[in-house]
Amino acid sequence: MDRTNPATGESLEPIADDSEDDVDAALDAATETFAEWRDVPIRKRQRLLENAADVLRENEDEYAELMTREMGKTLASARSEVRKCAWVCDYYAENAADFLDAERRPGPAHAETSVSYEPIGPVLAVMPWNFPFWQVFRFAAPHLTAGNVGLLKHASNVPGCAQAIQEVFERAGYPEGVFQSLVVHSDRAERVIEDDRVVAVTLTGSARAGRSVAKTAGENLKKSVLELGGSDPFVVLDDADLDAAAKTGAQARTINAGQSCIAAKRFVVHTDVYDEWLDTFVAEMDDLTVGDPTDDDTDLGPQAREDLLETLHEQIRDTVDEGATLELGGEPLDREGFYYPPTVLADVPRDSVAACEEVFGPAAAVFEVESEEEAIELANDTHLGLGASVWTEDLERGERVAHRLDAGMTFVNELVKSDPRVPFGGVKDSGYGRELAEHGIEEFVNKKTVWVQETDASDEDVDVTIE
After folding, report:
1. Which of 227, 327, 357, 358 is catalytic?
2. Where do the domains of the chain lie, and which CATH numbers do they carry?
3. Would you state the pLDDT for residue 456?
């Protein structure tokens, strides 16, 4: 796989693809390893996950520098990403056994009835480049600890990260075959999903990729979890703390140079505070420093690929042509690498590109609304439904509005974020299923009913033999 440093445009040493024989051997290894791994006591699996957290912390600089080199995020955010991966390992190392403990269920007096949570087999994870370690560990920490084995098909521009993640588990002492990275391009992923040795698949990516994966998984009757794109609304009501909403709004739009599914993308602002908030928000965006991602003073690094930069600029240009006002930015920076400045579009038409498409970069679309009801209607006017943020000094009002927003996650007076302690996922074209917390670990287990009774027991209850 060819690699390019997005901060300089220079080519990095390519990494060889896995051959068909390599992939076949990996699938065989996954199947063979699962037969033994599933019987390893969960407490031992948790101790290995603790080891993985230690490996991550001990090698934080190495992994952070690799992420920055391959996809351009700032070193500061890359280090934070490694620490967050260690956190999710700690979380499941502490809680997985409790989450998966067999659950007693009500039944007749003469029988013991329960639900056990048992692993299902090799699971393929198709993961994106924007958070190249976190997205993978968000999958691997719970599902390896549940007794499954993992196969990773990572994005083609971060193969070094894929290999490094496999090495984390090897260094932690996991048996060979519990977690394997397949260095293959997307056109080969479909055949892996179809393979009988793979029992389920999870994907984080675009809605287009999600439809393709869901179709293949469905045709082969395999469980799938999809975390897809987002066009998250950031709703500023008339009683919001405007300084806090502007400062956090700029952060929410530009984390990872704006390349995040849960970034705030559509800013929906009440007319009573629109002008004041917009001025403050533009100033906050303008104050951000774009530059070398290895420099500690840099807030935004480059876009991850040149084609992504070009797509972003085309979306902004089209939205301006459709009637939006360009308040800030709007042109690629004239320097080596793939840099785009913080950009603000105001008076955005509701049928324009920035209103209807996911904009994956540091460009904010701002909309003015006359009422709370109109804010809710506009926030929900999208085919996507990943996260949403509401800003108000009235917490009861904020919670009420949050419940009316069509999203998998709603935050009041906070940006949308992922946290191991709460479930993560979307609705509508943002996907289905959940990651993280106990809800996430239950996605790839067999919730098995176990009914145990004496052979001479009789059931005087209602006849339950008829479906």
Report:
1. 227
2. 3-228+430-450 (3.40.605.10), 232-412 (3.40.309.10)
3. 81
